[in-house]
């Protein structure tokens, strides 16, 4: 799967997210090798990744990583603290297959949530090797992203 088009190419401003990791080597293997995020600047304590056009910064802070609380959403226990990207449906399916092939253990298996409702979406949740929860989702009609 190639990286999604840069969001700022579509008129969106990139966001910046800094988060704790237990190992920069594991973060590089996961975000760089598995997810295909290009590496930017780094130091012995942190590393930048191009996360689908956004700046993601993994900071070495093992004591800050912890299991997130969960809330019920459409029958699933969704980790309250998580981040991710909304992909095209084709890219979402390709990523799901790549993650399955790599032996990823999903918190919430790839599936369609809110079937038949205005918020219908493909979703999957998994942990990075440091315990941070990620969600990747897709909408057949991206115009429904914020629909009520």
UniProtKB/TrEMBL annotation:
Residue intervals of the VOC domain: 13-139
InterPro entries attached to this UniProt entry: Glyas_Bleomycin-R_OHBP_Dase (IPR029068), Glyas_Fos-R_dOase_dom (IPR004360), VOC_core (IPR037523)
Pfam families per UniProt: Glyoxalase
PANTHER family: PTHR39434, VOC DOMAIN-CONTAINING PROTEIN
Descriptive protein name: VOC domain-containing protein
UniProt organism field: Paraburkholderia sartisoli
